[in-house]
Design a protein that fits this description.
By secondary structure, the protein is α+β, with helices and mostly antiparallel strands. It contains twelve helices and eight strands. β2 and β3 form a beta hairpin. The structure holds flavin-adenine dinucleotide.
Length: 399
């Protein structure tokens, strides 16, 4: 893989940088790159307007095919866009679940009518999506999910509870995994439904997190309705479609994440210089090791993306998830140590600074998107061919 910009890519980089310089102004510049993990409520309305600004400029959904409103951008161009985006301190994106998860899933499995209805508002930054998979008794073991949908005329009627649903309180639509065959078990008889969030029959209760924000929610479906046409794939085939969405989660979306890690690292380095921590030999050692590991992660991620198209979650993708989530948690601890005693103090309004947000939010990263234990199981069983773990029924949890 070539890491230097080709002449065409250099021209693309210049175009991105110029557009961002002209548009990250006023209230968008005031956001100053904020709105990432643990900071997701910050300036949400401004960031929602920014999503539409990006859409109008043609800077959302870069990797999607041109026929669906994307640019058909290469991986290299998507990397360049993300690099310039972080450099310009553009506002944290609010449309990532639609762009990164639902959109690619529809492009592969949706009907032409579904593509025509749902893709343009994602490209335009007009409609936001959330992911309704996890339930109180179905997380790592998603196949035990119990939310059900029954057909009533030309509608599906959905009943059940989802939990940990990121940004549900800000979303217009949810892609919901539910059981449409009441006699089915495990991964059979599931369907992948697209459900409008703004309706009677859906109650959203935010969950307060360590960061004092509520990035995720409980979502209660009590007779919520959606058109019978809003099932992706055949009814009963939802498991395959749902897994494809998870595969997209582990792909290009990681790039933006890694670049925000680099910005956090640079901020921490500046703090270490300013407060003298950089003069401590042990701290120097830890900062250097952290930087080297981040570079290994960046280069390995780029290599893993080369030549990948469509939902391609090789078991090796688990290695990257394990590596980045663990790296970021360790980095959060390092950020606390570099900041020293100041890291233990917050203002009266519980206003966290960047190292504190990183430390607290990164605790969740070894859980979501498949916990570290699950990633190790996948690597052990599917990469190394080690014996599968015994299937045990955990009492009380239904798993
Ligand atoms: C910040 C955040 C955002 C999230 N956003 C969303 C979202 O938008 N939509 C959504 O649907 N979900 C979301 N989730 C939920 C996430 O997918 C689940 O938390 C995750 O799948 C783990 O499920 P669980 O919490 O039920 O834990 P469990 O599955 O109950 O696991 C509990 C513990 O047991 C371990 N464990 C479980 N099974 C095994 C096994 N077979 N072998 C070894 N160890 C095991 C796990 O590693 C974990 O440590 C989010 C979670 C977080 C933290």
């Amino acid at each position: 893989m070539e890491f230097a910009d080709s002449p065409a890519d250099a021209a693309f980089r210049a175009e991105v940088a110029q557009w961002l310089a002209e548009h990250v102004v006023g209230e968008y510049a005031e956001i100053g790159g904020r709105g990432g993990s643990g900071d997701e409520s910050f300036g949400f309305d401004v960031r929602r307007a920014w999503e539409r600004e990006l859409g109008a400029g043609g800077w959302t959904c870069l990797g999607w095919p041109i026929e669906y409103g994307g640019r058909g951008a290469s991986i290299a161009q998507q990397v360049i866009f993300n690099e310039e985006y972080v450099r310009a301190k553009a506002p944290g994106r609010v449309g990532v679940l639609g762009e990164g998860l639902l959109g690619p899933t529809l492009i592969h499995y949706g009907t032409e009518e579904q593509k025509a209805r749902f893709l343009p508002p994602i490209v335009a930054g007009e409609e936001l999506w959330c992911q309704g998979y996890s339930e109180p008794n179905a997380g790592s073991d998603l196949a035990s999910l119990a939310t059900r949908a029954v057909r009533d005329g030309d509608e599906w009627v959905v009943t059940g509870q989802k939990v940990w649903t990121s940004l549900a309180h800000q979303s217009d639509w949810c892609f919901v995994m539910c059981r449409t065959d009441p006699t089915s078990e495990r991964h059979k008889g599931l369907s992948y439904l697209l459900v409008p969030m703004n309706q009677e029959g859906i109650e959203i209760r935010p969950i307060q997190q360590l960061t004092d924000t509520s990035e995720f929610n409980e979502v209660f479906f009590d007779g919520a309705r959606t058109s019978v046409d809003n099932v992706v794939g055949e009814p009963g085939q939802g498991w395959m479609v749902g897994l494809a969405t998870l595969a997209f989660e582990r792909g290009v979306g990681l790039l933006g994440h890694l670049l925000s890690f680099r910005r956090e690292f640079d901020e921490l380095l500046a703090i270490a210089h300013a407060n003298g921590a950089a003069n401590d030999p042990l701290m120097k050692d830890r900062l250097t090791k952290s930087y080297v590991d981040l570079e290994i992660l960046r280069v390995t991620t780029l290599r893993s993306l080369t030549g990948v198209e469509g939902p391609a979650a090789a078991p090796e993708a688990s290695i990257l998830k394990l590596f980045w989530s663990t790296w970021h948690q360790d980095f959060g601890t390092l950020a606390m140590d570099v900041t020293g005693m100041a890291s233990t103090i917050v203002g009266q309004a519980y206003e966290l600074d960047s190292p504190q947000r990183t430390f607290l939010f990164s605790r969740s990263e070894t859980i979501y998107g498949g916990s570290n234990e699950i990633q190790r199981n996948i690597i052990g069983e599917r990469v190394l061919g080690l014996p599968a773990e015994p299937k045990v029924q955990l009492s009380g949890s239904g798993k």
